[in-house]
Every structure is written in structure tokens, then in C-alpha cells.
Design brief:
Porin, 378 residues, globular, mainly beta, 16-stranded antiparallel β-barrel, 5% helix
Length: 378
């Protein structure tokens, strides 16, 4: 979803036909360009919390040759939910229902050169009834030290157009540009380290055009005003990861992520995954646990007693914390002929606690994921 998702209208119609047509074009062109091997997959994910339910089907294809690999995908987010209406007098008890569908299609290519470098490029576009986004990225990776060390850098750019379903003349823009650098190092046969640093700048319209924020006087809501965020946001994130194989069939994956931006948001994420394989890796199970803590934006308040320059009703900018736990199973049966099948299922539960989000103090979200893929040689 776009940065301003929530409380929108519906309008799919032509977008469904557009998305399916683009997926078919990408599928055919990828198969024709890289005839050596092909992998196709279909995924379905559902995320549900008290604010919204998101159903996300996805179809993807990867066609690989000796020196080039092409990828293409189509996905959609079908969102239904209810957003709290920030309005007097029942400021936190009313809600407005909404439904929307976003379609996205993307295509990319990666080249494997003889000098152990691999440049790649991606483009993608997505649309919904009141939001359009176009993005492009280019990256290069290179291996060193007899392929024990891999360094990569990715440059990306995004242009978004924000509209309103109830106002055809409303149109705002948002530009984003980012750079991510990554390093992966095999320190020992049983230990791999990975480090990512990411910086992103966003410039333009960054608030929800539908969201209203109440103003209080003497503890009583007396008026509502439109949400307003700064038009500039610089984000930084650094994430070290370690993968340890302490047995031929057991793996431990640990990560820590620190995030900070110039709105005053700071966050820490700690996560761990325990992997177990059976039957020569034809069956794989994963258990994961994640903790998250966030300091809210400087201008965020549970309630506003004065108009001020900036104001927000977005819980993602509040002071909050969460704990998540989940499991995943991957099944890769023995190949039949030149075809290899894979089936995956995942389920996660996340519990949120809010310090200063007035509509609620906590909520629980659930996510279900199902995946089916096929790989074959041509």
C-alpha cells in the first residue's frame, strides 16, 4: 500500500484487466528470453488486524540462462477495513469502512559476468483508485576473496501520485530516492555474517488525505483538522545478521535492526529464527520470534490541544512495541522428471502495545501465507 493508505474508496474494474495482461506479457517474454530453466510460483497471503484485512495473491516467473536471469511478477492487495473517524463528539468510537484494491506488476533482469560481478535492474508500477506509483532500481554485486565476500549496492527511485476518490481535482506527488549497501562474508564454514545499511529520502506529500485529527479544549474535542506531516523525511537503517549452522540439520538465524529518521522516530528490532531440515532438505521447518520497540515522531500526540504546524493520527508514528512469533514449513518433494515442486505454508501472530495511540492501547495481527512453485529445465 502507499504511504497514505487507509480510509479510501474502491475502484478496480480496468485495473484487474491491466494487471493480468501485464503479467501475461512478462511471463511470455521471460520464457522466450531465457530458455535454460524456468521457475514459476503462486503465493497467497492474508494479514488481518482490527484495522484492516489484506488479501494478497501473487504470481511470479523466473527464467534463467547461462549469463542472464529474468524475473517478472504480478500481485494485488485487496484491502477491507474500518478506520477510526477523528471527529467530535464520539471521537474514538465511530469508524468509516473502506475497500480498495491495488495492482502491481514488475520485471527485472540480472546478468552474471565472468569477473564475478552481477549487475541487475528492476522496474515496477502499481495502481489503485487514488494512488499510483512507479519505481526503478539498479544494483551491482561483486564477489571477492575466492567468493567468501560479496559486496553489493542498490540505487532506487520512486515517484508516487496521491489522489482522492471524492475529489478528481486533488493531486499531490511524492518523490523517494534510496541507496542500500550490503556485505556478506563467510567467516567459517558454519558461520555467515551479513550487514546492510540503507538510507532513503522522501520529498513531497506524506500524509493521508482522508485522515482527520481532533483538536481538544479543556479535555473535550471541539474541532477536527486535516492531518499534516513534514514534506521531507530522511531515513537510515542498519541491520547486522548472523547465520550459524551448529549441526548438519540445524541452523540459527539472528538479526538486529536499528532505524532512525529526522522526524524523531527511533526503533530497535531483534529477531531470531531456528531452522531444521529433514530428508536431505526436502522438508524444512522454521520457528521465529521478533521483538520491536519504537520511539514516536516528535510531533505525534495522543491528542492535540493546539493547531500547530504538524499533526498525525497514524499509529505507525506513535510510541509502540510489538512481539511476533511464527512458524513456516517448506516441502520440496523428490524431482519427477525435469520438474521440481515446492510447497510452503507460514503463520505469524503479532501483538502490539501502544503508549500514546488514543483509539486503542493494543491489538493483535495475524498473517497466513501459502506458496506453490514449480521449477523445470528446458
Amino acid at each position: 500500500m502507499g504511504v497514505n493508505s487507509g480510509g479510501r474508496g474502491s475502484g478496480v474494474g480496468r485495473q484487474k484487466e491491466w494487471g493480468v495482461l501485464c503479467a501475461m506479457v512478462i511471463l511470455c517474454s521471460s520464457l522466450a528470453a531465457c530458455p535454460s530453466s524456468t521457475t514459476t510460483g503462486a503465493d497467497y497471503r492474508r494479514h488481518s488486524d482490527p484495522l484492516a484485512t489484506v488479501d494478497s495473491p501473487r504470481v511470479a516467473v523466473v527464467a534463467a540462462g547461462e549469463e542472464m536471469e529474468m524475473q517478472g511478477y504480478w500481485t494485488a492487495d485487496v484491502v477491507t477495513g474500518a478506520t477510526p473517524v477523528m471527529a467530535a463528539p464520539d471521537v474514538y468510537t465511530r469508524a468509516t469502512e473502506f475497500s480498495e484494491t491495488r495492482h502491481e506488476v514488475g520485471v527485472g533482469a540480472q546478468w552474471q559476468r565472468g569477473d564475478a560481478s552481477s549487475p541487475s535492474a528492476w522496474v515496477r508500477t502499481s495502481r489503485e483508485s487514488d494512488y499510483a506509483s512507479q519505481a526503478a532500481s539498479a544494483s551491482v554485486a561483486r564477489e571477492f576473496r575466492e567468493r567468501h565476500l560479496r559486496l553489493s549496492a542498490t540505487k532506487r527511485a520512486v515517484y508516487d501520485r496521491v489522489g482522492r476518490v471524492d475529489d478528481p481535482g486533488f493531486s499531490e506527488s511524492l518523490w523517494s530516492s534510496g541507496l542500500a549497501t550490503e556485505a556478506t562474508y563467510a567467516m567459517r564454514p558454519d558461520l555467515v555474517g551479513h550487514l546492510t545499511w540503507d538510507v532513503q529520502g522522501q520529498f513531497g506529500y506524506q500524509h493521508n488525505p482522508y485522515r482527520m485529527v481532533p483538536l481538544f479544549e479543556g479535555g473535550v474535542p471541539t474541532a477536527v483538522v486535516a492531518e499534516r506531516h513534514p514534506e521531507r523525511r530522511i531515513r537510515h537503517a542498519v541491520e547486522p545478521v548472523a547465520i550459524w549452522s551448529f549441526d548438519e540439520a540445524w541452523f540459527l538465524h539472528g538479526r538486529y535492526r536499528f532505524y532512525a529518521d529526522d522526524w524523531g522516530v527511533r526503533s530497535h528490532t531483534v529477531g531470531a529464527e531456528l531452522w531444521r531440515t529433514w530428508l536431505d532438505d526436502r522438508l524444512r521447518g522454521r520457528l521465529r520470534l521478533r521483538g520491536y520497540g519504537q520511539q514516536g515522531a516528535r510531533f505525534y500526540r495522543a491528542r492535540y490541544d493546539a493547531l500547530g504546524t504538524y499533526r498525525s493520527g497514524d499509529y505507525r508514528l506513535s510510541t509502540m512495541g510489538s512481539v511476533a512469533a511464527g512458524a513456516r514449513v517448506d516441502i520440496r518433494p523428490s524431482p519427477f522428471g525435469e520438474r521440481r515442486l515446492r510447497v510452503s505454508a507460514a503463520y505469524d501472530v503479532t501483538h502490539y502495545r501502544f503508549v500514546d495511540y488514543a483509539p486503542r492501547t493494543s491489538m493483535t495481527a495475524r498473517s497466513l501465507g501459502l506458496s506453490l512453485g514449480m521449477e523445470w529445465e528446458r
